[in-house]
Amino acid sequence: MKREEIFSALEDSAESFVELLRSKGEELNWSEFLQALSRKMQARVWAALLPLARDAASRLVDGENSRDVDTSSKKVEGGYDDVEVLSGAVTVCKCALTLEGLNLTSELAETLQIIHDILLSVPEECCELQNAMSAVCEACWERGEEVEGREGLVPNCLLYLVARTFSQGATVKDVGRVWGMRGALLLLDFEDSSADSIKELLLSSLIEPLYLTSADGKKLLSYLFGLHPSFVDSLHQTIRNQIPWCPKAYLEVYGEVYFKSWRLASGPYLKKIEEQCIQDLMYTAVHANRSGPHAAFPALRKVLGYIHHQTQHSGVSEMIFRLYNPFLWRSLKVANSHVRANAVCLMMDAFPLHDPSSTREEIDTLLQKQFDLMSELLYDDSPMVRSLTVLGVGRALCRYWELVPLSVVKSLLHKMIRELAYDSGSDNVRVAVIQSLSIVLENRLSHAVLHDLLPLLKSHIHDTSVKVRIAFLDLLLVVRGIRSIKFYEVCAIPHLLARMDIDSIHVVKRIVSLLVSSFQPSSAPISEQVARCLTLIEMNMAAARTFYRLVVAHLPPSHVVRFMLAVYTTVRHAVGEGEVEEEEDEREEMKKKKKARGGGAKKRGRKGKVEDGLKNHASNALQGEGIEEEEERDPSGIREGGWKEGEKEGDASTRDPPSLSDRDLLAGALEVVVILWEGLKETLDSPQHEKLRLRLVSSVTESLPLLFNSLTDGRSRSALYFLASFLPKKSVSAIVRGTLETLSSLDHNSQDYAAMVTAMTSWKQIGDVVGLVSRWLKSSLEEAMPRPHDEAGGQGSAVSTATKNHKKTKGKAKASASSRANTVTESVRSKPQLALNILNYMLLHPLCREEMKRERETWYLEQALQQCMNVLDSHLSGEATPTGLTFDLLRQMLSVYMRLALHRAGEEGGREGRGCEVVRERVTEVREWSEGTLLPLLRGDLHAKSQPAKRHSNRKRKANQSQPTSSISDPHVKEGCQVTETLLGVTTEAVMIGLTDGELQLELAQWAAAFAETAAGPVLLKPLTKMMYQLSEASVLSEVDGIRTVTSLVPTATLLRPLLQLAASVSSGSPDDFKKVWSVLSGGVSQVVSVSLRLHSLSLSPHTVPTFATLTNLTMSLLARDVTENPSKCKSASSSLPLLSSALLDIVARNENTSSLFLSHLQSWLEDEDEEKEGEEEEGGTDFPGRLLRYLAALHPLSLLSSNGKECDEAIYCIRSGLRFSEQMKQHGKGEEESWWEELQYLSRTLETLQNKPYSY
Description:
- By secondary structure, the protein is an all-alpha fold.
- It contains 61 helices and 2 strands.
- It comes from Geodia barretti (Barrett's horny sponge).
């Protein structure tokens, strides 16, 4: 483009300039254009550009244009806008600033000044123009002295750049632009109000994440401390206020900012940063709060920690010592333990405190002073200080082992290991000692000293605190990686195995991690791994089970499968060798007999064949895709795994293979295979490990029948059945056919049924097991059923009637079920105890339970169990004694029946969409039976007991029975209590697992309350309290129209009242009896109070809380009755209150919100009493002194709750009303007796105390 065309467009008009930019903008290179011009021609450009920029800037800022203007778009009729004009001017100026020889004419300088002046006035929608204008100002500053007056071009630019970093979408590049302009910050007058805007932005940058996470941002924050001395205080105060609340990741950044600003500072800046910033943080940290959600000390310690770790820089150690010296030493000896703890942490973090410029003697004296302080603080009265000192000593020894004298090292370690490690006052101190030693072991020079000291801690594996045991195992894991110290020399392996069997999962996982390289070294040959496995089984079988259950997570699936096959092959080989030996013995006997007869044909024995088969089987088991023999051996052998030299090494590597006579060892090996398969089952079921699973199934299926024939002991058979449960049914069909027969042949008390039941479930044969159990129980109950005495059918049962009615509709199903191919004959003797054990196992095992609920035979089982209620009824009534069944068996049958019925009802209700209706039917059935049988028995009500219940309308009672009295010592009453406890336990579980709704919960609460009101209430207190607890928990989940309300507490309140009345009746007797009752009831009441408060806070309706209403009414009734009997008690101590009232008020007073809720219900109680007594007054029956005493009874809770700082204005208002009424009665001549007038005066004085102001008569 020709030069004259450009000049013509610039000098013609703004419209021509814009047209030039639009048409030739991409082709036009302003830098080349300006570079080719002479200085005179450049001046011509700036002279033409200045008026264009001035006019456009004026119109853009004022919002006015020449001629007709569209203010929304800033466009004129001519077809251009001011933004385009300014954008073009800014582009030309920016290109000029990039030239080597800048020709700064007055017109260019004025244009740059215009750009700077309107930078902050540009509309927000012109953000690109604003950014370009800022870039021009930045370029002017970067040109330095070439641009005269550049100081006037930075104020608005700084404001824009800093503000830009806080805008949405800001990047690290924006922070870098501010860092590039940092020199311009020195031009600001920080004492003038004109700099307030930029100062506020700079202070905000201290809490802006973009600055705290970028390198340029951190450097800029440090640079700010050198701008002005007065600004340092503002910066420090901003950071100081932010420290307790900022994220932890930023705390170290603040420390870095302080340290870098200190290194850059000098003169007054250095003194100010040291004394008013860093030292202020140190002093504040010593006296800061240690606990709470926003505790200041941990945050301040992290900030100072960055400075403490910079001692390698010159002058840092001297600065730290000089700033701590005025206050740290005395802070270590103050009375406040929190201050001492803070000071200990800081002293240990900054250790060693010294001045490098001091003489050697002065440094040694100062170090010895610190060692002496450490020794003193190790015996501090505060466990917190002791534990912190121990940890600090560990860190100090780790970092400065070479500098600390050996005598001091041994002295400190002796105190820690021999004394503080056995600190009985605090487990935190014991934990700190062990953690401290783990830290010290990081220094290799300490290993020689600690080699003989660590075994002194071996008893800590059995410490009573789980925290100590975990810390000790973490120490052993550290020791395991040290060559010169063996972990099994610190703690013997038998002790580790003993803890593995009984300890928590957190401890057990660490033990497994510690022993995995000893008992399951992946680099060792597979034969050696099997040998170590057998050794572990011999040492502790329970620990072996736990070990192999968790070791699966440490090994790849292919390795686990290969190891399983090796162990299984070992068992198979032992069985095969045993068979060969037995056959050889038999053959020798035959040879002797034939030789005695004079001959006999020679036949080849099976020994060669069996041995060949075992070898082939072993080789096949260890081959296959994905299972290869590892060639590399463990270079350290068994010793690296943790065996003592000369002790276990020979046992593991050279032990003889097991034989058939080692029954326990073979059973343990099979259990290991089962455990590993169970842990790997989900992995093997995935498609990528299909080949591993098929290989495992094939190898096990091949020889499983042989093991079943040879291993007949209970443990081995159980393991084999569990192993068979992992195999497909068709591959073990012979075993499937014999399992039910084996199950039926077990003894009454046998415990070997679990594996067979699990296997039958996995083979989808659970129905056969249910059928067998059903026949056993039905036969037992039929034998135990009482026979009719006078007329046939006189002992008929409603249960039998219901069953007969149901048989009409399910006759075909029953015929089909009975026509199954039974493997057990009907003549098998019934085994009720075994049947109940099997049922309990199936109900507890999730897989068995779900499969059982779907089986048709389960309905017949439920009907058979239902007969136990009839047998129990006859037994408890004394009409007949069941034959063949003990009372405990009948009670177990009732428990199993209810649990089974509830599970099936929940399944059926969920399938049919009827929710809790089916569950209610089952519960109602049992509830009606208990109300007709158990409740009269516990009440001692013969008439009610002899009346025919709904379910027993056809039962005739003996008319000549005499009236009995209920007594807990009566055998039938005792048994009735046990049955009731069983029913309460099962129904409580139904509430707990969510099988009940609000309506059914209310029915259960009313039903349980009836038992609480009987003479057996104290005996049933524990199960009743558990039910109340679960009802309160269920109320939290109850909703009405999607809203939680306190009305869901009605069932809980229904049961709470009789339980509290029961406690009240006991409290009138011996205090020891009340303590026993309250120890059972207090936990449930506390839970009810907590749930009530939670629901009250969530509820949107101002309903009275039923549970609090019950609690308040009963408490105040007891107090009113007590004060009525002795009016002077209102002035006595709270210890003289009724026992129950005192216990309830203690629970209420624990929380301010519960106190407020109690007082609001107290007001309602007083008002209700007023209405009742006012009604009596109208009838002429008011006893005014009695009413006054009720108000006096309220003084105890008021005094207790007000002393705790609780609000009681509403309750005070009620008592005030009582005082006014009493005065009115006195004025009318009623109640002149001095006996109650004194109480009235005491009431008024107490009211003055509560209100802190006099009450005038």
